[in-house]
Design brief:
Largest sheet: 7 strands, mixed
Oligomer: single chain
Shape: elongated
Helix content: 40-55%
Radius of gyration: 32 Å
Length: 786
């Protein structure tokens, strides 16, 4: 269990230095996370216990290398993690504000709002844990009065379980629809009476004021509440000031219209977020609702959470497999589309692994469960997708920060526009105040703060549909900037299925003897090469005669077979044991075998390149990847042969695991400034390299716990071409994000200028705000159709 440590950085006031300190501390050995809070002048780290006692001096060195005068003081805090349900939360802008304000509460070290799950997760000091709930509720209700706040017990969350919050049209929506309809009807009647019946202005005003109260009463009240709490500059304030101001200067119909269309826009945004959430939930609808388990000779139907490891479950055609397990009886075809994005079914037979979330198509399967529901493949995938939105892309963070400063600036500009010209030019107060109110309406930043998170949200869902799991929108954005992709060879570019193709005996040993000694040495190993040797032998092995077994990383294996010392491995092992051998010149993986110090022979093993590897490399270069590199522990000849066949730019062979990290660091130092390096591996043996790369990508994550845990992006099949799909989705997502930024800022800039010049009125201002927001939201939702 890691330790959370807190450091006071007294005197820290440089944003640039704080960012550098955060980054460099985060790169120290044993540090899992590093966060500098400039406002509180604190550094919070999550560190492995082995490094916890020695980390302080390293941190002080880093801090003083940037800020020599800052005082560094340590306090160890074992924080508590708490989760809260925010039922009814559907506004990205409000969720960002809630996340920020809760994060600034005393004792809170981190705060993350997950809009998809409608949850808030905080890391809080024990002293504040028991009193924090009421403060959180106050903050949430200051932005979203109708959201229900309740604490979630840590054990009660079930990945993928259907929640009431995921309906696209709920009771709150119905109430708002009725209110908008009544307000709009009264407004329409008032306007009709004014135009056609020529009623007196007081009568018209009664209709307009009543409709305004119905439509905008909650907005004005929210603005008042926010002002009382010191939060002045938000969309409620902008709408309230501009519409009340319009009443004051006599633009009564326009004032009500602004509020009406603002509410319609907010309603549309709410529906868009709900539908986007529902699309992703439907996309990941792989959670089985029940499991049929055999207990005491009877079949009973229970929830998957209640099934224990080792129990026997029955899965009929048309049912989802509820938990991971091994097929004991039956043959069938499985639809893995929800997991892998592939439409071609897979066959399973007795002894095969069956993964949760797959749809059983043809035969009845009897399965022995190997994992609890929470640890099964379906649960892990659902949890990954649901939590992906908590890791925000730099663009998202920029937009949130931009909106925070943008709104006060435009309010000040609107005030200057309304006050300064009449003073300097003399007179014309009504006209210039009208222009100021138009300026306020247009300036509302809703289009950006709603559509940008929504686009990344949708991009993660679109990638999931293709069998690509992206752990956060930050990694989705990083895929756009990948200039170098480094591949592991075995299991990534090649099938990783080894076959013995030749045995070359020496010194009087026969082929059968060489193979038998190799089998005895390899019998305890799970390495693919060992399995290929055991498969070629095809007989039972008497493991009782084998002793003193040692696996020597990067070299091979030594073992006692009866009274004989057997070595099986590469040339490095032969050299280290001073065995005279004849080097094999053939292309392939060689296992050299020595018995009691005498060279017995060589076993040649070959691996086959995956069918779509060459096309994947070609497509990657076509979409802008500048360099493709392969790393392998195999010998030079194998590395060269594979690299030439796939037309890779570079390759490095005969590497130990730690040397792979060194090569990645070397390549990383040579990459183009601002670009990213991605490493693609199997997620099991390549964990150190996956962690070191800017983007770690695990290949063939279906059923591999290590792959899902180690990487930033998980390709759920063994096809390298999935990487092209991942980058495609990332590029489309980025395009839509940039389009929305250009659309929103471009159109708003035009209307702001027209409003300031007096050419655009309130009606045009409504389009400049609500219309642009709806356009941006609809554009954002295109990603789900890709």
């Amino acid at each position: 269990m890691n330790v959370t440590k807190s450091y006071s950085l007294k005197g820290l006031d440089c944003p640039n230095c704080s960012a550098k300190i955060e980054k460099e501390v985060g790169e120290l050995d044993g540090v899992q996370s590093s966060v500098v809070n400039l406002m509180k002048q604190t550094l919070i780290i999550n560190v492995a216990p082995a490094a916890a006692d020695t980390i302080a001096s390293q941190i002080e060195t880093i801090v003083h290398s940037h800020e020599p005068d800052v005082e560094v003081q340590e306090e160890t805090v074992m924080n508590v993690t708490k989760s809260y349900s925010l039922k009814g939360l559907d506004c990205p802008n409000c969720s960002a504000k809630i996340e920020k304000e809760v994060g600034e509460l005393d004792g809170v070290q981190s705060s993350v709002v997950n809009l998809m799950k409608q949850t808030l997760t905080i890391n809080v000091a024990p002293v504040a844990a028991n009193t924090i709930a009421s403060q959180i509720e106050t903050i949430v209700h200051s932005h979203e009065p109708d959201v229900e706040v309740s604490e979630i017990a840590q054990e009660s969350y079930i990945p993928g379980k259907k929640q009431d919050t995921n309906t696209s049209y709920n009771n709150e929506d119905k109430k708002l629809t009725i209110r908008l309809a009544i307000g709009a009807a009264i407004y329409g009647i008032g306007m009709a009476l004014t135009v056609f019946a020529k009623v007196p202005q007081p009568v018209e005003l009664v209709f307009l004021i009543v409709s305004y109260i119905i439509l905008g009463g909650d907005v004005v009240w929210q603005a008042v509440r926010n002002i009382s709490k010191g939060r002045v500059f938000d969309e409620h304030f902008l709408m309230s000031v501009s519409t009340i101001g319009a009443f004051v200067i006599g633009e009564y119909p326009e004032a009500v219209a602004v509020m009406l269309f603002y509410q319609i826009g907010e309603f549309s945004q709410s529906l868009a977020v709900e539908r986007s959430r529902k699309s992703i939930s439907d996309l990941m609808d792989i959670r089985p609702d029940c499991a049929t388990v055999r207990r005491n000779g009877e079949l009973i139907t229970i929830s998957p959470e209640s099934v224990a490891i080792g129990e026997i479950i029955i899965v009929k055609p048309g049912e989802k497999i509820p938990l991971d397990g091994v097929v004991l009886d039956g043959d069938s075809m499985l639809d893995t589309r929800a997991l892998t994005g592939e439409s071609v079914p897979r066959s399973v037979h007795k002894g095969d692994e069956a993964l949760s979330g797959c749809m059983n198509q043809t035969g009845v399967l009897t399965i022995k469960t190997t994992k609890a529901f929470g640890e099964s493949t379906a649960s892990k995938i659902i949890d990954l997708v649901e939590n992906a939105s908590s890791r925000k892309a730099p663009t998202e963070n920029f937009i949130t920060t931009f909106a925070r400063y943008y709104t006060p600036v435009v309010v000040i500009l609107a005030a200057i526009l309304a006050i300064l010209p009449p003073i300097l030019l003399g007179g014309g107060w009504t006209e210039w105040i009208r222009r100021g109110f138009v300026f306020l309406v247009v300036s509302c930043p809703c289009a950006l703060v709603i559509s940008i998170p929504l686009t990344f949200f949708g991009g993660i869902g679109a990638a999931s549909k293709r069998g690509v799991l992206v752990k956060g929108s930050n990694y989705l954005e990083a895929l756009n900037n990948v200039s170098i992709i480094v591949f592991d060879k075995t299991g990534t570019l090649t099938k990783g299925v080894f076959n013995v193709t030749d045995i070359l005996p020496a010194n009087g040993f026969s082929k059968e003897q060489v193979l038998e000694y190799a089998v005895q040495a390899e019998s305890f190993s799970n390495h693919p090469i060992a399995k290929s040797i055991l498969s070629a032998y095809g007989k039972e092995i008497d493991q009782s005669v084998i002793s003193d077994y040692k696996e020597i990383s990067g070299y091979g294996i030594s073992a006692m077979a009866g009274k004989k010392k057997v070595y099986a491995g590469n040339t490095k092992l032969m050299d280290s044991e001073h065995v005279e051998y004849t080097a094999c010149e053939k292309v392939g993986t060689k296992v050299y075998v020595a018995v009691d110090g005498q060279y017995a022979g060589c076993i040649l093993i070959t691996d086959e390149v995956k069918p779509d590897s060459k096309k994947a490399i070609s497509d990657l270069k076509h979409i802008g990847v500048e360099k493709t590199v392969m790393l392998t522990g195999d010998d030079e000849k194998i590395g060269k042969a594979v690299a030439e066949e796939l037309q890779l730019d570079e390759y490095y062979a005969q590497l130990f695991p730690d040397q792979k990290v060194e090569k990645v660091e070397l390549l990383d130092s040579k990459k183009r400034q601002g670009s990213k390096l991605a490493f693609v591996g199997d997620g099991i043996n390549d964990a150190p390299v996956l962690a070191r790369a800017d983007v770690g990508i695990a290949m063939g994550g279906l059923g591999s716990d290590a792959a899902i845990e180690a990487a930033d992006v998980v390709l759920m099949t063994d096809e390298p071409s999935k990487l092209v799909d991942a980058i495609d989705v990332a590029k489309v997502t980025k395009q839509i994000v940039m389009q929305n930024i250009v659309i929103a800022l471009g159109i708003k800039s035009v209307f702001l200028i027209l409003g300031a010049l007096g050419i655009a009125g309130m009606w045009e201002a409504v389009f400049g705000d609500v219309g642009v927001t709806i356009i941006a939201v609809l554009n954002a939702m295109r990603i789900l159709k890709k």
